[in-house]
């Protein structure tokens, strides 16, 4: 599968996940935007979503957390998007990860517990599943930056 086909599939899965939860999603016209989707939260508030395809590796899911802006090299998404919409094809799962919640070059969330049972500083993928985010916590990400997802299901 080509990179553009994989990227299109990921955008479609993230868009579908938001729509299934009752959000209205806008798609920016043309190429070259620092985000792939804009999710209408309420009033005049939008969440800028950069979609990324993840792959499993060593008990984690890993995704590229930087942009290659043609001519400028790798760029961080800080200030350009609010959240990563991460799709893991092998699990058909969508995760929402604040832009400043991962390293500027690679996003990594644990799918399985560590072998030594370390918990401190470990970001478990289950904590970032789309259904763990409330509308209010998404609004806070859009308005102020990073917050932790709440343990509530999104109710549309």
| Order of H and E elements | HEEEEEEEEEEH
The residue ranges in which pLDDT falls below 50 over 5 or more consecutive positions are 146-156
Percent in strands: 25-35%
Characterize the largest beta sheet: strand count, sense, and whether it forms a barrel: 5 strands, mixed
CATH class: Alpha Beta
Task: Give the CA-based shape.
Answer: globular
| Overall pLDDT score | 85
Number of strands: 10
Strand arrangement within the widest β-sheet reads 1-2-3-8-9
* Class of secondary structure makeup: alpha+beta
Rg over CA atoms = 15 Å
Q: Portion of residues in helices?
A: 10-25%
Q: What is the third-level CATH name, the topology?
A: Trna Endonuclease, Chain: A, domain 1
Describe the structure.
The protein is of the alpha+beta class and 156 residues long. The protein has a single domain, classed as Trna Endonuclease, Chain: A, domain 1 (3-Layer(aba) Sandwich). It is built from two helices and ten strands, in the order H-E-E-E-E-E-E-E-E-E-E-H. A five-stranded mixed beta sheet has the order 1-2-3-8-9. It has a three-stranded antiparallel beta sheet with strand order 4-5-10, with no helix packed on it. A hairpin with a 2-residue loop joins strand 2 and strand 3. It is globular. The relative contact order is 0.17.
């Amino acid at each position: 599968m080509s990179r553009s086909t994989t990227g299109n599939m990921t955008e479609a899965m993230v868009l579908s996940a938001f729509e299934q939860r009752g959000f209205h999603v806008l798609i920016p016209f043309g190429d070259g935007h620092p985000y792939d989707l804009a999710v209408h939260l309420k009033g005049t508030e939008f969440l800028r979503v950069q979609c990324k395809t993840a792959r499993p590796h060593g008990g984690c899911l890993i995704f590229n957390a930087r942009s290659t802006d043609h001519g400028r090299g790798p760029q961080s998404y800080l200030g350009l998007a609010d959240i990563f919409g991460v799709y893991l094809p092998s699990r058909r799962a969508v995760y929402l990860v604040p832009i400043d919640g991962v390293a500027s070059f690679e996003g990594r969330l644990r799918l399985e517990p560590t072998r030594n049972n370390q918990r401190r500083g470990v970001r478990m993928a289950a904590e970032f599943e789309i259904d763990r985010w409330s509308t209010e916590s998404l609004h806070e990400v859009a308005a102020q930056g990073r917050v932790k997802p709440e343990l509530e299901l999104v109710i549309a």
